[in-house]
Amino acid sequence: MESLLQLPWAIAMRALEYPMRGIQRLIGERRMPYVFVLPNLLIFGTFVVVPLFINFFYSVTGGTSLFPDQRPFVGAEQYGYLLDCEDYLKPFSCREDQFWRGIYNTITFVSFQVTAMVALSLLTAIVLNRRIAARGFFRSVFFYPVLLSPVVVALVWKWILQREGVLNAFLTALGGDGIVFLAEPQWAMFWAIFVSTWAHMGFYTLILLAGLQSIPRDLYEAAEMDGTSHWRTFRRITLPLLWPTMLVVLVLSLIKSVQTFDEVFVLTGGGPGTATQLIVQYIYSTAFATQVHNFGLAAAAAIVLGSVLLVLTLLQMRLGSGKDKD
Amino acid sequence: MRRAIAFLTRRRGGRGWHPTDVLSYAYLVLGVVMMFGPVVWLVMCSFKTQAGLIEFPPSLLPYSQKQVVVEGYKEPLPLFEVKLPDGTTKPMAQVRRIGIISQMVDPANPGQTVRVRFEDRTPIRELSFAWENYTTPLAQFNFTRYLWNSVIVTSVATFITLIINSMAAYGLAKYEFRGRTSILIFIIGTLMIPISVIMVPVYLVVTQFGMVNSLWGVILPGAATPTGVFLLRQYMLTIPDELIDAARMDNASEWQIYWRLIVPLSLPAIAVLAIFSIMWRWNDFLWPLIILTRNEVYTLQVGLNAFQGELQVQWHFVLAMTVVTLLPITLVFAFLQKFITTGIASTGMK
User: Do B63-127 and B134-347 agree at the fold level?
Assistant: First the structure.
């Protein structure tokens, strides 16, 4: 396995030795760092930086063509279309109601998912931080779903939740009625939140566990000697010292949650109707999955999403730098 | 007995059980069921036959009805436990069923058939694994192709990512040059730009390069990961400059310093990035979904999604192929779990 990976690597590296020596002779040793940085910057520039600018161009042009030279300039029309609402609290009163439904679904999804995520991963981290047997095993149990692909995660649960699935078998065995979970709007949203929390909570648990373990042990020992109660120790020592990590987890999970697409898309397809269609799915289907590819509208919506993410990221960096100062 | 219990429940530090200990273990056991249960259930179900899947109430293990070959009958016959009129029971094979009457035959005495009432017979079941759930989609549908595409994308992309990220990281960590700070700020600034925000323009770029429906269109856009550069640079900063100066004295070229000195020394960080990259690429969904529209270039994730979205979902195949998809990651996890969890805890990324 190891040599299998190393062999192509060694061949590539050795093959580059002579040309690289030539380049070094040509441009001099001091300019070599540019050669090292170049390939990464080229790909990065082509596929991230340039698109970032083209995105703005798309959002101010109309038509259905992908190619920029065939797109007429329309100014802020796309944004105006997206924001044209009689009542912003009622998605159906908007011209682009799908966009607003996407936003409201995302708000519902994010608020419940982030709350559940932070609460559950905190609880799990606290339990895992206790003196328990086989801690390593239990830690990896909670972490395992993080590694699974979103498609796998969605299919695992779709199989459980479907009409003849094992959950309905339980319900009928207990004397209840079977529920077609993914065909009922409220249930579909619940399970979308549940499944994505299930899949990602292990990641935040790990971060919180690392935070808990960095709290000095002697603080707890001192509290124990003073006969402080469990609850008081938790409130006066654990919570304040864990607070910076909690904030990082909160913002990080917010950023990830706003971008949720894969699991929900495979689990419910955004349905029933548009009950679980989140904002990223709106962008995806507006640009690629509808009969008429409305790239301009999708780009405008993406910029709206990007601005939200930018604010959240700045918040995160602010928190990160605040943590260093303490 | 009491002493045995005392021994079993003895705790480190000589303290007794606190109610919160019981709650903790209860929570952890619930956690094991919740986290592993669904996946175990999926794996078990993937071995059931189509008939076994719709069975109610469902069983955990893949049982199916036992069949026997009886002399004089071409097809293997299903085996039942039959209650005979005299009160004894006997295993018999069913020849055919007409309404509520079954025509049964004793495998030991194939010449004679008996008529048995429908409710007097119960199927004899045995543990059997329906491997055809795995072999059929791999042979008849394009799943071998999808698997191969996923392997190609994952390995080539990881290879490219490791090379260009480690090169860039070395350049940014060990040289003073004009523009270094701005490049660094740039990379950190774009750390959080997800594909969902720029999918339309990236699609344009990929189209211009003619890479729609090509695996290169999946591989290249994500190859220059800012996270990777950042991670490797932080690690390379800890390598002492004296080593590099000594190598220069020995007339080593900058490229040789990079791949013969820096890369071997940064191997731990490179290994972490390699595992991340393998995970990202194997599990990648949104971008391949956009860029790959022809069946023969689908990756496993996209193919699986298309297959499960078809009108008549063939769950027995879907389940088996889901297991194939989750297997490599599970194996990586089983062997490298400690490595991955400490890697994530120390870098705070995934």
Answer: no
pLDDT, residue A4, reads 61
Contact check, Cβ <8 Å, A207/B345: yes
Burial class (CB in 10 A: 0-12, 13-18, 19+), A21: middle
Is the separation of the CB atoms in A36 and B271 below 8 Å? no
Q: Which of A59, A32, A4 is nearest to A303 (CA)?
A: A59
Q: Are B253 and A21 a contacting pair at CB < 8 A? A: yes
Average confidence (pLDDT) over A212-240? 85
Residue of A nearest to B18 (CA): A230
- pLDDT at position A123 is 93
Q: What is the pLDDT of residue B314?
A: 82
* Interchain contact, B42 vs A155, CB within 8 Å: yes
Structure tokens at A9: 């690597």
- Phi and psi angles of residue B294, each rounded to the nearest 5 degrees, phi first: -100, 135
Q: Tell me which of 3.30.2310, 1.10.860, 2.60.40, 2.30.30 is the CATH number of domain B63-127.
A: 2.30.30
Average pLDDT over residues A24-45: 89
Q: Report the mean per-residue pLDDT for chain A.
A: 86
> How close A218 comes to chain B (CA, Å)?
16
Chain A residue numbers with beta carbons less than 8 Å from the beta carbon of B196 are: 259, 261, 280, 283-284, 302, 305
Measure CB to CB from residue A169 to each of B21, B56, B259 and give the nearest one: B56
Residue ranges in chain B modelled with pLDDT below 70: 1-17, 56, 311, 343-350
Confidence at residue B4, expressed as pLDDT on a 0 to 100 scale: 66
Pair of tokens at residue B32: 């094991």
Lowest mean pLDDT among A30-34, A73-77, B295-299: A73-77
Distance CA A171, CA A167 (A): 6
CB A7 within 8 A of CB B159: no
Q: Is the pLDDT of residue A112 over 90?
A: yes
CATH 1.10.3720.10 fits B134-347, yes or no: yes
* Domain edges within chain B: 2-44, 63-127, 134-347
Q: What is the pLDDT of residue A326?
A: 40
Q: How many CB pairs under 8 A join A and B?
A: 277
User: With an 8 Å Cβ cutoff, are A160 and B309 in contact?
Assistant: no
Alpha carbons A1 and A7: distance in angstroms, whole number: 10
What ipTM is given for this predicted complex? 0.85
Query: Would you say A225 and A217 are in contact if contact means Cβ atoms under 8 Å apart?
Result: no
Contact: B224, A47; criterion CB under 8 Å: yes
Q: How far apart are CA B212 and CA B195, in angstroms?
A: 16
- Best interface-test mutation with A: which of B200, B254, B289, B292 has the largest number of A CBs within 10 A? B200
Q: Is A7 helix (H, G, I), strand (E, B) or coil?
A: helix
Q: Does the beta-carbon distance from A206 to B41 stay under 8 Å? A: no
Q: What is the pLDDT of residue B217?
A: 93
CA distance A99 to chain B (A): 15
- The verdict on a CB contact (< 8 Å) between B57 and A169 is yes
CB contacts of A143 in chain B (<8 Å) are: 337, 340-341
Given the candidates 3.40.710.10, 1.10.3720.10, 3.20.20.70, 3.40.50.20, the CATH classification of the domain at A91-325 is: 1.10.3720.10
